[in-house]
Amino acid sequence: MAETTAIPIVVLSRHQDAGELINSTLRNAGHAVHCTWVRELGRLGDTLVQTHPRLMFACLADGEDASPVVDVRDRHASNVPIILVRNSLTEDDLTTAIVRGARDVVTLRSKPRLTAVAERELHLASLDGTLAGTLASARQYRDQMRAFMTGSTDAIAHVQEGIVVDANPAWLELFGLSDAATVVSQPLMDFFDPHGHSPLKGALVAALQGRWPGTALKVDALQPDGTPTPLEIDLERFEFDGEPAVRLKVATQRRDMETLAQQLEEAVRRDAATGLLSRSVFLELAADHVTQSLKAGRRAILYLEIDKQDKLERDLGLLAVEEIADAAGVLLQGLLQPDDLGGRITSRGYAVLLERGNARDLDAWGAGIARRLAAQVIQTTGRSISVTGSVGIALFTSTTDNLAAKLAFAIKCQRTAAEAGGNRALRLEEVKQQPTEAEIDRTWAARIKSALMANRFRLVQQPIASLTGEERAMFDLVVRMLDDKGAEVLPTEFLAAAERTDLLKNIDRWVVGAAMSFCAARKPHRVFVRLSSDSLRDATLGLWLQQQIRASRIEPERVVIEVSEENATRYIKEAKALQGVLQTQGLGLAIENFGAGRDPLNLLNHVPVNYVKIDGSLMQGLANDRPLQERVKELVDRAHERKIATIAERVEDANTMAVLWQLGIEYIQGYFVNQPEEVVLESRAVLEV
Known about the structure:
Elements: E1 7-12, H1 16-28, E2 33-38, H2 44-51, E3 55-59, H3 67-76, E4 82-85, H4 91-100, E5 104-106, H5 111-150, E6 155-160, E7 163-167, H6 169-174, H7 197-208, E8 217-222, E9 228-240, E10 243-250, H8 257-269, H9 279-289, E11 298-306, H10 309-316, H11 318-335, E12 341-344, E13 349-356, H12 359-375, E14 378-380, E15 383-385, E16 389-396, H13 403-419, E17 424-426, H14 437-453, E18 457-466, E19 474-482, E20 488-489, H15 491-500, H16 504-522, E21 526-530, H17 533-536, H18 541-552, E22 559-564, H19 565-570, H20 572-585, E23 588-594, H21 600-606, E24 611-614, H22 626-641, E25 645-648, H23 654-663, E26 667-669, E27 677-679
Parallel strand pairs: 1-2, 1-3, 3-4, 4-5, 16-17, 19-21, 21-22, 22-23, 23-24, 24-25, 25-26
Antiparallel strand pairs: 6-7, 6-10, 8-9, 9-10, 11-13, 11-16, 12-13, 14-15, 18-19, 18-26, 18-27, 19-20
Helix pairs in contact: 2-3, 7-23, 10-11, 14-15
């Protein structure tokens, strides 16, 4: 039988002999199998994605926990049955294995039983595939008929194992090709910019598992001459010739007169060379935008210019410098999120108004622009050159801040960064004439105490979404304060003063009490509640938590206490003590902002936790930054080795989510999942202020 018809099987084993024995046993029984041997668990996920096996054998020592193997299978190929291979077998072993997610347990000494179990699972897989193929064929027929009746001209391609197996004429036209032979049987990635490969691979894996949420993926297609074309691609699981595949679709733009008029109007508002807003339009929209209150996070304006432009002009000429500046603008435009505003302020300088989770995220985004620009090769005057740029960043502190003044300060920061050597992002501290810190603290302390006494605090919930198919409600809970007029006050405005005036413990206890009320009423799977450094060092916290659990009558495992990596590292003794208290009472512990410090992995050696939240600053530009992806992957792998679940903070777009799928993250939170919503519950906590 030809090897191309072989049944793919994966064997996870520390020794190759086991894989060879399984392969020969099944072949001698008449099954044309092709076994792929995997020595290390860390390589199993990629192997499952690449080989699409019908069956998997996991050779484990007696008593060795199979859960890590099952977890990897669930993330990458949930439909593949697992057969455990042990040295010996008991009824208890069989029961435990099935409960953990395996189909059966065999030993290598009993070849007839191994063969019988494998035949049974392969037969079931064949039946499942036949049924799925029949149902898919019916759906495919309906889809084809619907497309025919409506005259659809959407660009469509089908992909199996990373290879294009079918493409319609509209797809060929989209990529500037005329012959289907130039597309079919070719790797899909060959037709896309390498910077987009990671999110595209992640989206394909998610779609093949039926878990892609239906959001369009933004990627750059490559024309035959290498010119990038921005696309938004929809992905869905599909059956092609009875085998799993992914359908990629780029919807056709129907250009009626109204749409054309809108496009013409939009073109007038934008810089023709870069697609960014023109100066006047940017300033008009930005001026209106900065007067609107934030629901969360921080707002900033960034300014970008190419470094050493005078020297470039002397060496290359004025026109070449303009082309370089245009290329920088195109790069910038491609990195903006839908709610970001980007404009060409001068012939060589660009401004961006954006909102992110915190100042660290904004700094990371600016640094990512400089890094991407330095890595780009620009074609001009018949030459290929590399340049660098500098980014200045100015933070907004309130809706009354002056846009022109903030932009001027961002430009000052950019000039300072350029004079210091360039190729960097810089955010300077603004020096202002303002009340003393003591005066500010006295004012805020009075307002905070008044809000606590009048119960003018509220919780907002941000959903935490699973990337592994779980449908259990999980929320991150954040506090908001209302002023005496009922207007919302963000934590960034009052928490610093609360810390300096010893009021953070009071606020923390309000939040924990309200969170337990929420759990008692709604019974979510998990809620995450952050504690300040003051509460982390509070020796009375354990007794107070015990009283709150008893009063609220909640299942304590629903509540996960969250501390920042910075505080846990600074107060590591107290963090270890807190973990012990929480474990005794049945509460969970999470580390947020994980990866922001110098040695996050060392922290896990000292403080056992249930969850780590990968810092949101590492999400900025993740989809197009391979070194950053490798850094996040290391954090995820080390956490999984310790059986710690991972959550990505402040995820803001589909491309980042697709990469996180590839990296093995279990959960995500951020504006891409949902904006924070108010929890309409009152706290049961009683506070003294």
